[in-house]
Design brief:
Oligomer: single chain
CATH architecture of the largest domain: Up-down Bundle
Shape: globular
Strand content: 15-25%
Structural class: alpha+beta
Largest sheet: 4 strands, antiparallel
Helix content: 40-55%
Number of domains: 2
Radius of gyration: 22 Å
CATH topology of the largest domain: Glutathione S-transferase Yfyf (Class Pi), Chain A, domain 2
CATH class of the largest domain: Mainly Alpha
Strand order of the largest sheet: 1-2-3-4
Number of helices: 10
Number of strands: 12
CATH superfamily of the largest domain: RecF/RecN/SMC, N-terminal domain
């Protein structure tokens, strides 16, 4: 479902890994109802090729998929990003922006295309055209930094509100966008670091080294946050994503809870379910042990079993 909604997987970057072993291609289809209008969404995977169709019409830009099936995913990997390096938090920030903002997609692709080309020249030691690519990198990099900065400033307000809902407002939390370079120094650092970039064959400074800092009570969540606080923090981020998408597209997104029982205790689960009921959020939950889920879920849900690659419908309770 995440693949249908965003055109990419939250687990694997390789398309081939998403195709059933021993097969050459795969097809995903969904019918989406919103505001009384039904849309057909299809995705075809073959080798390294990915093609997306909306109502039978092929689309070629990721931006055309935005808002068709807005999705938010919460998986055990999300909690791990607190302790991992900047790349994992930067990936989370970009993935969230990717779903929400068309302007971001343009900035993101422009910067990373330019970065890739500049690094090719650096690895070969070829200075021809290097100044031009550096100028383009700075220009697109400044735009990317602005996109990230603006989003975090706006998103943080929703995040603080959802965290207070989970914890009762006993703690203060914040997000801080930590750019690798300051806008006013970017040009100077690129010129200053040129010889070092040529020696190492890669670009040493820029938004590709940005970080997102997680703070609780104005201190590092990674260092000072308990395991319970860290889980509440990530859960609040996901709840804020849902709110942000709902405000952006004026429609309820779908929440995907991957292996929920491994990350949420009963208390946090109940807080989350209360929030989802209030917001009328359609939710898909996976678990290897249904007994860990609150009993109230079984009175208002459809259940399916996946075993040996086979999906079996089990039951639907009264809604």
């Amino acid at each position: 479902m995440y693949l249908l909604g965003s055109g990419r997987s939250f687990r694997s970057a390789k398309i081939q890994d998403l195709i059933h072993h021993g097969q050459n291609e795969s097809v995903l289809r969904a019918e989406i109802g919103s505001e009384g209008i039904n849309s057909q969404l299809s995705l075809f995977l073959s080798g390294s090729i990915r093609r997306v169709f909306i109502n039978g019409k092929s689309i070629y830009r990721a931006a055309d998929l935005q808002g068709i099936l807005p999705v938010v995913v919460f998986s055990p990997d999300d909690t791990a990003m607190i302790k991992l390096g900047p790349e994992s938090r930067r990936r989370y920030l970009d993935r969230t922006l990717y779903v929400c903002s068309q302007n971001f997609l343009q900035c993101y692709h422009a910067y990373y295309r330019t970065l890739k080309q500049r690094n090719v020249l650096l690895r070969t030691g070829n200075r021809n055209g290097l100044d031009e690519w550096t100028e383009q990198l700075i220009e697109s990099g400044l735009q990317l930094m602005q996109c990230r900065q603006s989003f975090v400033a706006e998103f943080e307000k929703l995040f603080a509100k959802t965290y207070a809902l989970i914890t009762g407002g006993l703690e203060t939390v914040s997000l801080q966008y930590k750019p690798d370079v300051q806008a006013e120094n970017f040009n100077h650092l690129m010129k200053q670091g040129l010889e070092s970039d040529l020696r190492h064959g890669t670009t040493g400074h820029g938004p590709h080294r940005d970080d997102l800092q997680f703070l609780i009570n104005e201190r590092s969540l990674k260092v000072f946050g308990s395991q319970g606080q860290q889980r509440s923090y990530i859960l609040a981020l996901k709840m804020a994503e849902l709110e942000y998408l709902q405000e952006t597209f004026q429609d309820s997104p779908v929440l995907l809870l991957d292996d929920m029982a491994s990350e949420l205790d009963r208390n946090r689960t109940e807080n989350l379910l209360l929030f989802l009921n209030q917001k009328n959020i359609q939710t898909m939950i996976t678990t290897t042990d249904p007994t860990t889920l609150p009993l109230c879920l079984f009175d208002s849900s459809s259940r399916f079993r996946v075993e040996d690659g086979t999906l079996t419908y089990e039951e639907t309770k009264s809604r």
